[in-house]
């Protein structure tokens, strides 16, 4: 569970899971102070981090020396009817083509991708 609390700076918001915390804000052109990740960047980070960790866990479990993995995620919201998550994956070391292809498919099985691929329903809780 994430709890968010407004800060004294105009739109800066503290978020926390009770153990770790960070800040979100919006850009100056929207009235913010640019003192944290924008909300859509947090969504991009969730997918990118999950893909990255999922690949490294798979490699660890299968004895694959993977090296450094870099994932990049951008949300294209130009179509009001849908959001497109553009992503790229970079491996620091050259992998055999079959393994490279397999790992790119494995990335799409990460839990956050699974969640974002479902129908999303917003439900307001009490209080």
Distance between the termini: 15 Å
CATH architecture term of the largest domain: 2-Layer Sandwich
* Helix run count: 3
Q: Would you report the number of β strands?
A: 5
Percent strand equals 15-25%
Mean pLDDT: 96
- Give the tally of structural domains: 2
CATH-defined topology of the largest domain: GMP Synthetase, Chain A, domain 3
Radius of gyration: 18 Å
The low-pLDDT segments are none
Helix content: 25-40%
Structural class: alpha+beta
Question: What is the CATH top level name of the largest domain?
Answer: Alpha Beta
How is this fold's topology laid out?
Blueprint: E1 3-6, E2 13-16, E3 21-24, H1 39-61, E4 69-76, E5 84-91, H2 97-107, H3 111-117
Antiparallel strand pairs: 1-2, 2-3, 4-5
Helix pairs in contact: 1-2
Polypeptide structure, described:
This protein is of the alpha+beta class and 127 residues long. It has two domains: 1-36; 39-117, 2-Layer Sandwich (GMP Synthetase, Chain A, domain 3). The protein is 32% helix and 22% strand. The chain contains three helices and five strands. It has helices at residues 39-61, 97-107, 111-117; strands at 3-6, 13-16, 21-24, 69-76, 84-91. Strands 1-2-3 form a three-stranded antiparallel β-sheet, with no helix packed on it. It has a two-stranded antiparallel ribbon with strand order 4-5. A hairpin with a 4-residue loop joins β2 (13-16) and β3. α1 packs across α2. The radius of gyration is 18 Å and the shape is elongated.
């Amino acid at each position: 569970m994430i709890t968010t609390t407004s800060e004294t700076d105009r739109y800066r918001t503290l978020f926390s899971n009770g153990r770790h915390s960070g800040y979100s804000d919006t850009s100056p052109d929207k009235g913010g102070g640019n003192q944290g990740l924008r909300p859509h960047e947090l969504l991009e980070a969730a997918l990118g981090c999950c893909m990255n960790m999922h690949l490294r866990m798979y490699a660890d479990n299968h004895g694959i020396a993977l090296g450094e993995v870099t994932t990049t995620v951008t949300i294209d919201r130009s179509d009001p009817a849908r959001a497109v998550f553009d992503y790229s994956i970079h491996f620091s070391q050259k992998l055999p083509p079959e393994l490279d292809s397999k790992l790119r498919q494995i990335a799409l099985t990460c839990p956050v991708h699974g969640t974002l691929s479902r129908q999303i329903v917003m439900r307001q809780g009490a209080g």
